[in-house]
Amino acid sequence: MEVLREFGLRFIREFQLGTVRHDFAIPSLALIVELDGPTGHSRPAQRRRDAWRDEQARLQKWEVLRVSIPRVAEKLRLELCSRLNRGS
């Protein structure tokens, strides 16, 4: 993703953590990014599945950022600015 390259961060697509495959991860920040489509994550069953997947990542000390696809660059840029400024 272009926004990750702007920050010089290495990322892994289709990141496997335990039994769960995530959209991608930024290992240096222990951050998993899940891209949610406009309607695919609005159903109760999907929200429960997402919550379970997020909890599995948190149990392994990873944070999860869920971003709707149309706003991915904007939200990811804000999140990275926040995280990288905290580390300074």
Please summarize what this structure is.
By secondary structure, the protein is α+β, with helices and mostly antiparallel strands. Helix content is 41%, strand content 28%.
Q: What is the total tally of β strands?
A: 4
Find the structural class using helix and strand composition. Answer: alpha+beta
Question: What is the N-to-C succession of helices and strands?
Answer: HEEEHEH
Question: Please, what is the average pLDDT?
Answer: 86
Overall body shape: globular
Radius of gyration from CA coordinates: 13 Å
Largest sheet, in brief, is: 4 strands, mixed
Would you identify the regions where 5 or more consecutive residues have pLDDT less than 50? Answer: none
Total helical segments: 3
Strand arrangement within the widest β-sheet reads 1-2-3-4
Our estimate of the beta-strand percent is 25-35%
Ends distance: 23 Å
Helix content: 40-55%
What does this protein structure show overall?
It is a single chain. This protein is α+β, with helices and mostly antiparallel strands and 88 residues long. Helices cover 41% and strands 28% of the residues. The protein is built from 3 helices and 4 strands, in the order αβββαβα. It has helices at residues 2-6, 44-59, 72-86; strands at 12-17, 20-26, 31-36, 63-68. It has a 4-stranded mixed sheet with strand order 1-2-3-4, sandwiched between helices. A hairpin with a 2-residue loop joins β1 (12-17) and β2 (20-26). It starts with a helix and ends with a helix.
